[in-house]
Amino acid sequence: IKSIQFFYILYSLAIININLIVNIYILMHIYQNNQIEINKQKDHFTLVIKKTEINHELQNFWNKTSDIIKIDNSSNGNKKFTFKADSIETLSSLLKTKKKKLSYRHGKILYINFLLQLNSLEKKGFGIINLDLNDFIVINKDEKKYNTVIIFINSNKIHKLENNHFVFEKPSEVSKLMSCPFNSPEIENIKNIPIKIHKNTIYYSIGKIITFCIDGEKKVNDKESFKDALTSIIESKLYYGLMRCIENNPHERYYLYI
C-alpha cells in the first residue's frame, strides 16, 4: 500500500510539473512596455492596452491599429485585442533575416500602415516625434513571412501637439531625442532649449527608416544620397512617396501614397 501511495505522489508531482511547463508554453510575453503588452497563447496573440492616462486619449489610434492587424475579437472595452499569426518579431529582427534588405512589398506595407496610424493620431491632435527599428513589430501571418502586417507599437513616442508642433523644455528630453539614428535635420541641428519641432519631422524619419531598410549600406544625408540608396525601387509609387518625405524644409514634406 505504501509503495502504491509513493507511486501516486510521484505521479501527481509529475502531472503538476507537466502542467506548469504547458502553462509556460501556452502563455508567453512577446513584447512589453509601460503602455502595452503582447502575449501568445497557443496560436493566438493578444494585444493588451494598459490603463494609462495617455492610452485613454489614444483610443482612436488603437482602434485603427486593430483594424490594420485584422483582429479576431476585442474585449474589456476595446483594451484587449486577439488575433491569429504564425509569429511576431521586431522590424530589426525581420531585417536581419532578410540580410538587411527589405523587399519592396515589406517597404510598402510599412509605409502605408504607418501612414494610417499617423493620420488617426493627427486627427486627435497627437503626433510621433521620431522612429527606431524596434518601435515596429512585424506580424507574420504565415511561416514564409510573405503575408505580413507591420505596425508602429511604441506609444511612448506619441506626444500631444501644440499648434502642430512638439515642444521640449528639458535637456534630458532633448538628449534622448537626439540619440535616435533616424532623426530629421531639424532635430539633428538642435542648438537651444526649449525647442519647437514641427510635426512633419516624422515624415523625414519614416522616409529615412524605410530607405535604411531597403539599402542600409549607403549613408543618406541629402536628396541625392537618398536617390542613390533607392535605386532598386526608382520610379515606383513608394520611391516618390519617400522622396516627398525627405525634403529639408518640414513645411515642404508630404506623406502620401498616390
Description:
There is one protein chain. Helix 3 (59-69) runs antiparallel to helix 5 and helix 5 (104-122) packs antiparallel against helix 8 (201-214). The chain is built from 10 helices and 12 strands. It is globular, with a radius of gyration of 22 Å. By secondary structure, the chain is of the alpha+beta class. Helix content is 42%, strand content 21%. It has helices at residues 2-26, 53-57, 59-69, 91-97, 104-122, 171-178, 185-188, 201-214, 223-229, 237-245, and strands spanning 27-32, 36-41, 44-49, 73-75, 80-84, 87-90, 126-128, 136-140, 148-152, 158-160, 165-168, 195-198. The strands form 4 sheets. Strands 1-2-3-5-4 form a 5-stranded antiparallel sheet. A 3-stranded antiparallel sheet has the order 6-8-9. It has a two-stranded antiparallel sheet with strand order 7-10.
Helix-strand topology string:
HEEEHHEEEHHEEEEEHHEHHH
Separation, N- and C-terminal Cα atoms: 80 Å
Percentage of residues assigned to helices: 40-55%
Spans of 5+ residues with little confidence (pLDDT < 50)?
8-26
Q: How large a portion of the residues is in β-strands, by DSSP E?
A: 15-25%
Number of helices: 10
- Helix and strand content put the structural class at alpha+beta
Could you give the order of strands across the largest sheet? 1-2-3-5-4
Q: Note the main sheet.
A: 5 strands, antiparallel
What Rg, in angstroms, do the CA atoms define?
22 Å
Assembly state (oligomeric): single chain
Mean pLDDT: 88
* Global outline: globular
Overall number of strands: 12
